[in-house]
Amino acid sequence: MTEKERLERLMEYEHITPTQFADRIGIQRSTLSHIMKGRNAPSLDVLQKTLNVFRSVNTDWLILGVGPMYRTASNSQQTLFDIKPEIEKKELETENTVVNENREATKQSNKEQEVCKVCKTIIKVVVFYSDNTFEELTK
């Protein structure tokens, strides 16, 4: 089954027309028309917009044609507000200590060079995952 056919099946299951689908995901109607007529394949942008609106659709199914069409409750797609950092505070502090120690070693080895006037510290680390989720770790 092609991506086009999967989009058609999604519209069928959601009981919406191609016009309604294009409007809901925020793309030009002509863009969807080109996809439905086989002139163009759905772009990554179209697929991402589809997944952002239809949150229960299985990403693997839409992009790869693998697995069920809809996610189960146990593996539903997280929203940005559902994401909880997996790194414990102690681990983050340890990482900051290692970074600070490395920074000090670098400063010492560069004493012959110009002295750093503004020292920088890490205030935020963002980790992006392949399933379009991310974690934001702050100090």
Describe the structure.
The structure is a single chain. By secondary structure, the chain is mainly α. The chain has 6 helices and 2 strands. Strands 1-2 form a two-stranded antiparallel sheet. Helix 2 crosses helix 3. The relative contact order is 0.11.
State the CATH superfamily name of the largest domain.
Answer: lambda repressor-like DNA-binding domains
Strand content: 5-15%
State the helicity in percent bands: 40-55%
- Which stretches are poorly predicted, pLDDT < 50 over at least 5 residues? 78-84
Summary keywords:
single chain; 6 helices; 2 strands; 434 Repressor (Amino-terminal Domain); 7% strand; 139 residues; 2 domains
What is the structure about, briefly put?
The protein has 139 residues and is mainly α. The protein has 6 helices and 2 strands; from the N terminus they run ααααααββ.
